[in-house]
Amino acid sequence: MQTFTKAQKAQLLKNHNDQASEGGIDFKPVVKLFTCVKGNATWLLTEMDEHGIAFGLCDLGLGFAEIGSVDINELTEHLGPFLERDSHFTATKTLSQFTAEAREAGGRIVT
């Protein structure tokens, strides 16, 4: 499975460029990645630069969700077939709203 659809990749890149030029934008996540084997890690990503460094809310399956960056190339290299894209995910909230809900849920991302 591809990490992103063409439309998702284009939106992630656009969001990165918009954030770089305007700043302070609270985007809705574009894509949800997760592992269903080798842990319960989840990434809700809002933007990505041309080098594959993505930004979003990340929980490595330990219940400590935090906003930060992740190298998509390293992620796919290390997790390979264990990394999944949630093809049914459509964000209805902004990243800050997901973050607040994760705090209320004891650190776990709630989608």
Output the keywords.
5-stranded antiparallel β-sheet; 111 residues; 3 helices; alpha+beta
Describe the structure.
- This protein has a 5-stranded antiparallel beta sheet, sandwiched between helices.
- The longest helix is centred in the first third of the chain and has 17 residues, at 6-22.
- It has one domain.
- With 111 residues, it is of the alpha+beta class.
- The two termini are 21 Å apart.
- It has 3 helices and 5 strands; from the N terminus they run αββββαβα.
Summarize the structure.
The chain is an alpha+beta fold and 111 residues long. The chain is built from three helices and five strands, in the order αββββαβα.
In DSSP terms (H or I, runs of 4 or more residues), the helix count works out at 3
Order of helices and strands: HEEEEHEH
Gap between N and C termini: 21 Å
> Total number of β-strand segments?
5
Q: State Rg.
A: 13 Å
- Portion of residues in beta strands equals 25-35%
Number of domains: 1
Low-confidence stretches: none
Oligomer: single chain
Mean pLDDT: 94
Largest sheet: spatial strand order: 4-3-2-1-5
User: What portion of residues is helical?
Assistant: 25-40%
Write the layout of secondary structure elements.
Elements: H1 6-22, E1 31-35, E2 42-48, E3 53-59, E4 66-71, H2 72-79, E5 83-85, H3 95-104
Antiparallel strand pairs: 1-2, 1-5, 2-3, 3-4
